[in-house]
């Protein structure tokens, strides 16, 4: 353990002058998060991992002598800390007013609150969460891919692991792969750049094998965003090369990957069939019909929504029956609308916007501001932007945060990245004051 602690300090993963057992434990548990999320068959084990991180964090906070002073430094983050409470607040407002209060509904969103002690502990112990994740993420993805292939579990020909929907699995892999890309600095060695690019390739490959088209859209958006963020650090020739590479990669995948070719063609045919009314029974058509049902129901009860899986009494509406088939009606009741924005609006009405703001909109504003202030050098902020944008785009075709295990992972990752960004910002401010 002492050797590992010394290694953490040498790699600058722990900024503490004397990293100890707790620092090492926090690092190891954090590094295991992506692999655990994508491979662990029993979701309760990821919850156990979260509890272990929480316990280690509480011990750190208990033993810290100058905790008040250090936590007061995080007060500058009050906006993003409040945002972590908004998913829970949305339910606390909507459910009592609807006279439909269920504690189980708070199990997922409340995890955004439960990770705040972890955020404080990572900040106090100066754990470089971003660097720890970048060190482990490519290996996590490689190990996950090997595990999934060795298990041989496929759902309708789509690679995944037994406990996870292939869409959620592939979308998450795509986002993790791009987090590797967003973690590359121009000053990195060739070996480190290569290592992180391998993580990107493996993440994209996993998404292709899972046939998660929402993840492919997210990947395209993240690649465009990466180019935009680096437009001032690349020459025009480099930007043209990157653009040409993106176009060429898309064309090659379409013509030489049977999976990509088939999924793109079926998406186009499904969209065309739904618009023209010639065939609404395709997966794309069913999803679009569920979105139409969801938006119609929201407009009927926009203030408080309907709660979780409480739509059945309203699905006999004559207008819904005029365009929706039994499959889409059953699908939106049992599995949700396959769109997180619509799902939140149905669950909590206009107060669902509070949940979306706390989960995506306020954090992306915060991290974007920090990234801009750092002159595009804050890697943790770049990774956070990648995670939030990737999850939000993916959430347009599936609910990324409907399961407790998904909430646990997202909350832990956000806590780590917020603490890292806060520390880098405080360090930069202290340096500026010293130089003045």
Our estimate of the beta-strand percent is under 5%
What is the average of the pLDDT values?
A: 85
What is the alpha-carbon Rg in Å? 22 Å
List low-pLDDT spans: 430-436
Write the element-wise H/E pattern from the N-terminal end onward: HHHHHHHHEEHHHHHHHHHHHH
| Quaternary structure of the protein | single chain
Could you explain how this protein is built, in words?
This protein has 436 residues and is mostly helical. It has one domain (2-258, 350-435). The protein contains 20 helices and two strands. The protein has a two-stranded antiparallel ribbon. The longest helix is centred in the C-terminal third of the chain and has 32 residues, at 404-435. The radius of gyration is 22 Å and the shape is globular.
What are the main properties of this structure?
436 residues, mainly alpha, two-stranded antiparallel ribbon, 20 helices, 2 strands, disordered C terminus
TL;DR?
The protein has 436 residues and is mainly α. The chain has helices at 2-10, 21-39, 43-63, 67-73, 78-98, 111-114, 116-124, 129-151, 166-182, 190-210, 213-229, 236-256, 258-276, 283-300, 318-323, 326-335, 340-348, 352-373, 379-394, 404-435; strands at residues 154-155, 158-159. Strands 1-2 form a two-stranded antiparallel sheet.
Q: Topology of this structure?
A:
Elements: H1 2-10, H2 21-39, H3 43-63, H4 67-73, H5 78-98, H6 111-114, H7 116-124, H8 129-151, E1 154-155, E2 158-159, H9 166-182, H10 190-210, H11 213-229, H12 236-256, H13 258-276, H14 283-300, H15 318-323, H16 326-335, H17 340-348, H18 352-373, H19 379-394, H20 404-435
